[in-house]
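Work Package 3 (structural annotation) set out to generate three-dimensional models for the target panel prioritized at the project kickoff. During this period the team completed the workflow that converts sequence records into discrete structure tokens, so that structures can be stored uniformly alongside our sequence database. As a representative example, we reproduce one entry of 194 residues exactly as it appears in the project archive.
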Amino acid sequence: MIIVGVGVGPNMLTQEAIAAIRSAPVIYGSGRSIELVKDFINCEAHIIKNYRELHLLPADAVVLSTGDPMFSGLGKFADENDKVITGVSSIQASCARFHVEMSHLAIITAHGRDPSPAREALIREVGLGKNIFLLPAENFGSKEVADLLREMGVEAKICLYENIGYPEERAVVGSVQNPPLAESDMYCLLVVQR
């Protein structure tokens, strides 16, 4: 199987990803990922119904993963013989948009899981002085992050980036006292201490 990162939004495909999609004998992905690359598809495309059964797909199948497959993506299902093609991630897009250097960044995800470990990681990494990239959960977003930072006595910028690459893209900077609030569920956060 070839797992292809299709980027976090429109127009974020690498040339390698385009080539893999164009030459694919069959494609599998979410409705959103298929929509992002529809102009490059020359074969049948199927919506994945059960991600735990990806290992049952044909060896030459191309599987689309939004963002980068190795960050909260389908790369976690890759076997050692599978190929993974990178995609532009929300991490890269956010750091570029808000001019945040990635070398001093802790990457945390609460997306689609219990946010307790993400909360603990945020406390630990902020305590080490790091900036944070967070894929939030429904119950662990900008307001909860701001509340936590306030409890810790930390001053920081909170940057919210949503609908990246889409016409309704929105990038907002707030503070611990006045955090930006998401208007959609497709967003990420940066906590910038320095």
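The helical segments are 15-22, 31-37, 90-98, 116-127, 142-152.
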